Amino acid sequence: MASIVIAEDDRDIAELLATVLSNAGHAVQTAPSGAAALDLIGRATPDLVILDHHMPGMTGLEVADRLRAEESTSAIPVIMLSAATPAAARHLCDVTISKPVRPKHLLEATEELLAARDVHPGTAAQLADVPRLLAVSDFLTRPAHAGGGLDTFAERLAVLTGVPTAAITLVLNDSVVVAGSHGLPKWVREAGGVPAEWSPDAIVVAEDVPVLIADSRESEEYADTPLFAVSGVRSYASVPLHSSEGHIVGTLCVMDEKPGTCTEDTVQILHSQRSAALSLLSPAGQAPAGA
Predict the structure, then answer these.
(1) Is residue 73 within 8 Å of 67, Cβ to Cβ?
(2) InterPro entries from the xrefs (predicted)?
(3) Which of the residues 39, 40, 106, 215 could staple to 259 if both were Cys, CB 3.0 to 4.6 A apart?
(4) What residue ranges define each of the domains in the chain, with the CATH number in brackets?
């Protein structure tokens, strides 16, 4: 069960949304205005806030801006409801939903945001772990392997998995660095990687778990990030790579513009190739850590 605050000036809509979420097991409070919502949130920080944009006095966008400006509320997931969502909402809100709201759509968005909060609460702290970062930096400062071995390996990985794009990455606290690749979009290759928040690899490394996305358009967390939205990636699979000391330093990942290409079998193939990838990254004679 989660605590949820809904700010909606239309009483009928507020009651409908509250009923839908209450029936799903959540504790819901409603507020008829932005100011009333801030008062509720200030008294007891909720797990999720749902804001109508067009409210008298203070708009939903203004409420979201206030929440993001305060350290105590900046991390609360926010859903905005509006018939015409303002452009700024995409930077302040986690999800925007057009009115009229379909209850099923709202419930799905709510559950996905709450699940992401529960599963990945310490991602940033895990990525910033100093011994792990030192291990990643060690790999990054080593001379590139002769003959483009990592790119060749990525090409072979694409063939093995039957997925057209593959990469070996090293993950810092704020970025995913491409060490070797095959078929990546030009803009990713030229940049040398992507910000950590754009990529599921941040979760792979922080949680030491594989990630499988059958269709990115069904993922609230990644559907609108440039890695997926700009490049058109729909299907994605990634597994963690460990240094010889056991630090999680990067990933093996594959992706495709077609949905459903990456499956559980893809993940198993990636697992089977981790030792080979680490042997290319590691100095001669230094055995990589086991899976």
Answers:
(1) yes
(2) Bact_response_regulator, CheY-like_superfamily, GAF, GAF-like_dom_sf, Sig_transdc_resp-reg_receiver
(3) 215
(4) 3-119 (3.40.50.2300), 125-281 (3.30.450.40)
212-215, long-range: CB < 8 A, 24+ apart: 212/236, 212/237, 212/262, 212/263, 212/264, 212/266, 212/267, 213/237, 213/262, 214/259, 214/260, 214/262, 214/263, 215/259, 215/260
Radius of gyration of the chain from its Cα atoms, rounded to whole angstroms = 22
Taking the CA atoms of 139, 208, 131 and 122 in sequence, report the sign of the dihedral they define: positive
Q: What is the pLDDT of residue 146?
A: 39
**Using one digit for the tens of pLDDT, what is the confidence trace for 58-86?**
999 999 999 999 888 988 999 999 887 77
Burial category of 55 from C-beta neighbours within 10 Å (exposed 0-12, middle 13-18, buried 19 and up): buried
- The tokens for 120 are 């990945």
